[in-house]
Amino acid sequence: MRGxxxxxxxxxxxxxxxxxxxxxxxxxxxxxxxxxxxGGASGEASGGxxxxxxxxxxxxxxxxxxxxxxxxxxxxxALILTPDHLSGALRVGEFAQARLPANLHWTLTAPSSLLxxxxxxxxQDSSLNVCYWTFxxxxxxxxxxxxxxxPPCDPPAIACSDTVTQQTFTITVS
Length: 174
Description:
The protein is an alpha/beta fold. The chain is built from 1 helix and 8 strands, in the order αββββββββ. The strands form 2 sheets. It has a 4-stranded mixed sheet, with no helix packed on it. The protein has a 4-stranded mixed sheet with strand order 2-8-7-4, with no helix packed on it.
């Protein structure tokens, strides 16, 4: 009888470990990760998604990959880029912020080595209804930044679109 109890306990522990593994794998696809403080310029976007990968799917209903926070927390910005304001100039050491409408799930797909990302990458400012990335100019030159956006979706509740929107900004650093 004692052997039966031990076998039962081992089976229960194995079942528990299997459930934990399955739950971990299920959550890994949710896109609920946070961005590194550097701003994802390291070649990865939120939740370890490789830069350039198309975001969305798997419970990616939040439009911005980063934390919900205040885009104006950095104080005065030398340059704010939007779809209506695609380029501008900075001096080394000054800050720029790219702001994209929070109606798409955005990923920084082509960062620039001339700009150092600062703060939450892809932060979501609910009051401005934007996803934002903040950068500090580090070197002189022309710095393009490219973002890819897809409609947020959570299959099967919401049908996912394969439409990708690209937005490129150009910053000249002197």
